[in-house]
Amino acid sequence: MLMRRQDMDPVFTLATDLDGTFLGGSELERQSLYNWIEMHRSVVELIFVTGRDLPFIEASCADGVMPWPDFVVGDVGTTIATHDWQTNSLAPDDVLEAPIAALWGDGIAGIREHLDSAPGIEPQDVIFRHRMSYHYDPECFDPATIRVIEAAGFDCLISDNRFLDVLPKGISKGPSLLRLLDARRRAREVVLVAGDTLNDLSLFETGLKGVAVGNSEQGLMEKVAGRDNVHVAQSHGAGGVLEAIDRFGFADTVARAIETEIEVPA
Which of 126, 141, 200, 266 could lock 3 by a disulfide, CB 3.0 to 4.6 Å apart? Predict the structure, then answer.
């Protein structure tokens, strides 16, 4: 595998959700996408923008389920981490995370008692650093809970009609991805974002080129309808991502870069 030189910017950055998106589609579609990325790794950058945490990503990559990313915007945007290629480990970036940690503060301590007794939500088993996540039952949920969360200074995000996240105000996948891209001085026109649920909506609201894969939840499809920057794919999961890479001309951009590239030993 060719590795990108430290002084070389990528000509294409894929910033993708995992469940239902990068991990979605058929086995053939997933392997086609993963192989394409690995074959062109010298000029292609991979960022996971996901609700998953770092231990899950490290374990999945170590097991060969998916390729290692260059960076991770995890925990629905509340974690920003870098991949150390020498140790194959992911480490949070304290500088980029500082505004997130400051906004989260002591978390939901002030409203925990209320949320613990609120109908229609149940805490998830995983403990997150700058967010609180619940299983969500729309049949039992009391909408007044959202007002309590927002009055306490947090954002409330419901996705896939199954999950509810309490997040620091103004923090989600899209803003955290932009913070990372700006810190890395990445040109926004070379970036493609990909997702399938409402917790990916903020990615498409950045104005970056994007793809809502074919298996996206209806709520997301309704929100992105008519957006010029978003391709609504026919194919599911990884197949939809491949469809958009071609649709926006990124496949040609990468091919041209590889043709003119001077190979550097890994």
Answer: 266
Quote the CA–CA distance of 110 and 182 in Å, as a whole number.
34
How many domains does the chain contain in total?
2
Angle (deg, nearest 10), helices 237-247 and 27-39: 50
**pTM (2 decimals)?**
0.92
Give, in order, the Cα–Cα distances in Å from 214 to each of 50, 64, 192, 203, 242: 18, 25, 16, 17, 12
Residue 7 belongs to some domain of the structure: no
Output b/e per residue, 139-160; b: 16+ Cβ within 10 A: eebeeebeeebeeeebbebbbb
Residue 201: pLDDT band (50, 70, 90) is very high
CATH number reported for the structural domain that contains residue 113 in this entry: 3.90.1070.10
State the residue range of the domain holding 149: 100-168
Q: Same structural domain for residues 146 and 110?
A: yes
Distance between CA 51 and CA 172 in Å, rounded? 10
